[in-house]
Records
---
Amino acid sequence: MPRVGVLALQGDVHEHVTRLQEIHADVVLVRRAHDLEDLDGLVLPGGESTTIAHLLNTSGLRSALEDKLREGLSVFGTCAGLILLCRDVLDGRHDQWSYGVIDVAVRRNGYGRQIASFEASIDVPGTGTVPGVFIRSPKIERCGVEVEILATHDHGDGPDPVLVRQGNAWGCSFHPELTGDPRIHQLFVNSL
Ligand code: GLN
């Protein structure tokens, strides 16, 4: 059973835990640096990226996680989690930082505010069509050459990548944890 951590500082932690348990992962809540030991993979949940970033600083996890990412720990960031993993944050807070392990530029709230939240069917080649819930989601506006685009969504202005991967780092602009469909989690866990 792969041992998968869920960063449990803020956001929809419980929903990720449920999805991962449905696919029989051994789930660990990560709140302190020592919780990062012996993980096969780590999920960074959706929530509020500035709050999670602040709590990464105050918990002492920021640099411990940076070390693990440098060592190649597999990681999957959804929504705010993607913002934390990306190279460039557009419309970020002036002091917003990110780990930069996925060479994409994301615009915070790029699909609009809370009131503009929507659900779309996302075709993931090789996996099928999955429901995608977008809530104040980041929009991927630039993708580096090393980034693999696993799924796109056309919100009326051309297709944007919504599920990407660069090596062991995966990012998703929507919330696969909020529907009862664990296939996106399964994709990540299968890679561990
Ligand atoms: N817009 C939020 C942020 O900047 C992310 C929203 C989400 O995770 N649903 O962190």
---
Amino acid sequence: MNLQDYGWNNNWQKQFEAYKHLNTNEHLTVGRVLLEHKHSYRVMTEFGEWLATPSGHFQYNAQVRRDYPAIGDWVVLEQMPGEEKGMIHTILPRTSLFSRKVAGSSVEEQIIAVNINYIFLVMSLNKDFNLRRLERYLIAAYDSGANPIIVLTKKDLCEDPSEYVDQVETIAFGVPIYTVSSFTGEGIDLLQQLLSDGHTGALLGSSGVGKSSLTNALCKENVMSVQTIRTDDDKGRHTTTHRELFQLPNGGLLIDTPGMREFQLWNNSGSLDSSFNDIETLAQHCRFRDCEHKKEPGCAVLTALAEGTLEQERYNSYFKLKRELAFIERKTNTQAQLAERNRWKKASNQIKKKTRR
Ligand code: GDP
Ligand code: ZN
């Protein structure tokens, strides 16, 4: 197996060399995580695909979800003698990471995928078209470290896509925008060109916008035959093996995970500014530095709103998102405080136990 087909390059090689430099273990090799099971991972190595588990030392050092491998990771591992199995020693530093808070009250993080080069923000050129939603996807993309690319689908249904493109440009400064149709194939080749040379992509967008159709179009063949490979298990039965990271005909890779599809709202507030930098730019001209743009005199944001250069809807969505982010932050803080308190309780109980002995 040539790992370059899975995205291996000089940068990864350098990281691997740096790790090997600190280690005397001569059996180290690398592989990319294709699928995550409960406690193990399907990893593609130059010797083929292995089932791999983290070493005891690895697990001892791992504290939070991020410390464990995820789909798209490059891991350093060693083969278990005589088996198609591996033991994972470390994860090479990630270039991008998609995560979200797990639904419900928990603030546990779910890692959706890592080391994505291009994140395609998919939206259709019809009634699903929603700029506010796209703003959220952009925030997630900025937070992840992957390069966002906007893909407007179902071009065959749209009389005048340029109208939509103009709208998107007002919120997505400098982000490439492609208009495509998976039905006619228009524009697909340009996306395929991006996804070549071991570059990894993933699609993000609401249900019904055409992600499955686009995936099929990018694969040029039925995606099921790419995604699932029939293998024989030791009992001679046929089993189908599911992959969440798979190769495209053009030499690129695509990550398609359930989590990617369930995506809703990411919560790293750091990127609010990059997505709303028209408002942030206006805010620099407010009279007061701590202006909240609500009723302060000399507020440049309110002036723009009154003059019509800033849309009411955009102004509203800025505050809506700000409130949501503040809410998640508060929740996170409360949970963090609780966790901290529990930790102290545990520690002091242990001390009590010890002193009693
Ligand atoms: P997903 O939920 O994002 O994976 O969306 P699907 O790929 O399942 O597509 C949702 C619906 O849109 C289906 O009925 C598709 O047939 C339709 N669709 C997808 N791509 C196109 C396209 O390029 N043109 C048209 N006219 N319909 C499309
Ligand atoms: Zn202001």
